[in-house]
Amino acid sequence: MRRLRTPCWARCSVEKPNEAKPAVARQQSAPTLVFRRLADEDDELSEVQPDAVPPEVREWLASTFTRQLATSKRKSDEKPKFRSVAHAIRAGIFVDRIYRRVTSTALMQFPQDVVRVLKTLDEWSFDVFALHEAASGAPVKYLGYELLNRYGMIHKFKVQSTILESFLSRIEEGYCKYHNPYHNNLHAADVAQTVHYMLCQTGLMNWLSDLEIFATLVAAIVHDFEHTGTTNNFHVMSGSETALLYNDRAVLENHHISSAFRLMRDEECNILQNLSRDEFREFRTLVIDMVLATDMSFHFQQLKNMRSLLSLAEPTVDKSKAMSLVLHSCDISHPAKRWDLHHRWTMSLLDEFFLQGDKERELGLPFSPLCDRNNTLVAESQIGFIEFIVEPSMTVCADMLECILGPLHSNTKNSSSTNVGTGQESISEESSGGEGSNKFKIRKPWVACLSDNKKIWKEQAAKDAEARAKLEEESNEVQPVTTEE
Asked: Could you tell me which residues belong to the region Disordered (predicted)?
């Protein structure tokens, strides 16, 4: 009986029995789900000096990006599993193959305006707002389908087109449930596209198995499913049903995961129905790990742990932790995009904060940081967000990617007598010394965007400070002068 082969555009894992393996380890997901602790020690806002930012901004950073949470660790002893060197050499060929115009052959019909916008899907500052308009308000439906098709996930895991379309449509509806200005289907599409950039343009996809890529894309798509437009702290302080259900721990993140997997139990939306039992358990564990790691209160400890790991002589990076950091970095990446996109995201997020502040006023709760529409320092908050949150995240994430992908790049380079193009525009080499050796680097388009955006916010902050000082001076001048009798 002739064995069916996977098409050329769907990758397969090939490993020679005696082939040497790089030092980067692949961790197998645990068979039993446990709620992991991302941090080994108490969270600290050590990166932020007391006088570096205004008190309100510091309070926001502290309350949003730190938290102490006791959970258990998960261990695994599985050895790394890599594709063959020949496959790594052909990485560029694979990239070219998966970026065929699959939308023209997909069963789901794509409007021409959507196809036009998706031609720029590989760009760092992809305009998801343009996609939203072209897709008539359904960016997740088309972008999610496009990504899963491009990476060969639909074929590999036998996902029926009608079921995938139904799943994505229902996910989109969940994102629109509360009519949030920021945490909506636009944000989901933006994060999924940014994750795609990290997978493809850095070459990270060559380090991952098909199932891991599948889990990463789905985690990005569902990571804020049915977001309420309010923070975890609001749920806890208001004693919401969701906070009661999840015992005040990662309230929203637990809800996003639980609701998404509950949706996938519906036969009409079950994109996982053809996974084996082991594949399902690994997929589910990976998605849970990644989405839980988007809880902002884990931020500083997550970066601290990865920095510590990368400082070792021979770091071994866990797949789940690596992809969790990638998703978290992409989740907060809008300040690292082009100014017009970043500014639009900022205004939407502030609208959402202010709506929460209005609810807090109605409930008699104290205002959460940046939620009082009458007393919020917009420019200062964004400067603090960029300097203390986004820049460090993107730096650590890039360092991790270079650590992970360096061995693959070295094997590719050493095994080819000719200069084989990778087809990945974000990969480069930089001289590491006088001996002529080269150090693997990825290109970082976010660096220039962060610098430009921070400069603009600083100019705005100076103007705002000047305006406030002028108002205060005018207020002092009109105050009546009183004399003692």
From this structure: 412-439, 461-485
Look up residue 66 and give its amino acid: T
Answer yes or no: are the C-beta atoms of 131 and 103 closer than 8 Å: no
214 SS3 class:
helix
Burial of 436 (0-12, 13-18, 19+ CB in 10 A): exposed
> Has 51 been labeled as part of a binding site?
no
Maximum distance among all Cα pairs of the chain, rounded to whole angstroms: 111
- Identify the pLDDT of residue 56: 74
Residue 184, marked binder: yes
| 380 vs 72, residue with greater confidence | 380
* Residue 293, phi then psi, degrees to nearest 5: -75, -10
280-295 tens-digit pLDDT: 999 999 999 999 999 9
**Single-letter residue type at 273:** Q
Question: Is 366's pLDDT higher than 90?
Answer: yes
The residue-averaged pLDDT of 121-125 equals 98
List residues with catalytic annotation.
Answer: 183
Closest CA to 139 of 189, 181, 184: 189
Phi (first) and psi of residue 462, to 5 degrees:
-65, -40
Instruction: Confirm or deny that 255 is annotated as ligand binding.
Output: no
| Residues constituting the chain | 485
Please check whether residue 359 is in contact with residue 230, taking contact to mean a CB–CB distance below 8 angstroms: yes
What is residue 178's predicted lDDT score, i.e. its pLDDT? 98
What number is the average pLDDT over the span 95-100? 43
Work out the burial of residue 413: count CB atoms within 10 Å of its CB; fewer than 13 is exposed, 13-18 middle, 19 or more buried.
middle
- Is the Cβ–Cβ distance between 290 and 320 less than 8 Å? yes
> Hey, which bits of 275-344 come out as E strands?
none
Q: 135 with 111: CB under 8 angstroms? A: yes
> Which segment of 223-227, 294-298, 419-423, 467-471 scores lowest on mean pLDDT?
419-423
Q: Are 404 and 317 in contact (CB under 8 A)?
A: yes
DSSP 246: T
**Residue located via tokens 């760009």:** 123
- Tokens standing for residue 312: 């070792």
Q: Which two tokens stand for residue 246?
A: 């999840």
pLDDT at residue 43 greater than cutoff 70: no
Structure tokens at 165: 């379309």
pLDDT score recorded for residue 65: 80
Indicate the pTM of the whole model: 0.79
Q: How far is CA 353 from CA 174, 231, 235, in A?
A: 20, 9, 14
What is the distance, to the nearest Å, from the Cα of residue 91 to the centroid of all Cα atoms in its chain? 24
* Annotated binding residue 149: no
Please report, for residues 66, 312, 459, the alpha-carbon distance to residue 304 in angstroms, rounded to integers and kept in the order given. Answer: 12, 13, 31
411 assigned binding-site residue:
no
Cα–Cα distance for residue pair 281/157, rounded to 1 Å: 14
* Residue 141: predicted pLDDT: 98
